[in-house]
Amino acid sequence: MLSPCDSTCDEPDPKVLIALLALIGCSVYAQNAQILPAGNQGTQGNMGNQGNMGNQGNMGNQGMIGNRCFGRNEERKQCGTACEPSCNNRNPICTKQCVNNVCQCRSGYVRHSITRQCVQPSQCNNNNNTSTSQSPQRCRANETFRTCGTACEPTCQNPNPQACTMQCIPNVCQCNQGFVRGPSGCIRRQNC
Q1: Does residue 127 share a domain with residue 83?
Q2: Exposure string for 20-51, b = 16+ CB within 10 A, e = fewer
Q3: How confident is the model at residue 136 (pLDDT cuts 50, 70, 90)?
Q4: d(C-alpha 104, C-alpha 149), whole Å
Q5: Which domain holds residue 173?
Q6: Is position 104 within any domain?
Q7: Full DSSP string of the chain
Q8: Burial level of 114, CB count in 10 A (0-12/13-18/19+)?
Q9: Is the domain of 68 the same as that of 115?
Q10: Which UniProt keywords apply (predicted)?
Q11: Higher pLDDT, 172 or 104
């Protein structure tokens, strides 16, 4: 299973439309990302007076009327994070991206993954807030299952990615150390 940014023999130079990926919560900034004009990004990633998309792109009952947030323990942020902490991921790894005029949880609170309310971490209860991550899948030879993999896995075309986001690709099989993604799976670099 490849991440959205993996280069392959069929697609050695993948293009990522940042505005489209903003719809799933956290934007991906790939090495070869196609940057859209600034005016196009804000309208996609922030729903304005209708409410913001929150973590993972789910519309919750958080939102704003005028310049006021109506969710309990929320506050309006002129430059909020694209990856708000939640019960399932209290310290998300995220790009340095500013989401304008967004309602997000106050300091010391996280977004409950089911109710979408801002709660104290102690209110994140495992019975009512279970993770949606898959059980580990079987990976092919020279691969390891990772609950949080890299968006810039080494490939034959780019064995040493220099610029990469700290984006987490959830539940993915990726090449073991010393291997790169080749046309038919993970192979030693010298076999590319």
Answers
A1: yes
A2: ebbeebbbbbbbebeeeeeeebeebbbeeeeb
A3: low
A4: 26
A5: 143-191
A6: yes
A7: ---TT---SS-SS---BHHHHHTTSS----TT-BPPPHHHHHHHH--GGG----GGG---S--EETTEE-STTEEEEEEE-SS--BSS-SS-------EEEEEEEPTT-EE-TTT--EE-GGG--TTTS---PPPPPPP-TTEEEEEEE-SS--BSS-SS--S-----EEEEEEEPTTEEEETTEEEEGGG-
A8: middle
A9: yes
A10: Disulfide bond, Protease inhibitor, Serine protease inhibitor
A11: 104
Same domain, residue pair 78 and 122? yes
128 shares a domain with 52: yes
Can you tell me the mean pLDDT for 72-97?
A: 86
Would the pLDDT of 177 be above 70?
yes
Residue 32 lies in a domain: no
Same domain, 161 and 127: no
Instruction: Identify whether the C-beta of residue 76 lies closer than 8 Å to the C-beta of residue 64.
Output: yes
Residue 1 pLDDT:
40
pTM of the predicted model as reported, rounded to 2 decimal places = 0.37
Q: Which of 112, 132, 152 is the last residue of a domain?
A: 132
Structure tokens at 45: 């990633």
Residue 56 and residue 116 in one domain: yes
Last residue of one domain, picked from the residues 83, 102, 132: 132
Residues 98, 111: contact at Cβ < 8 Å?
Answer: no
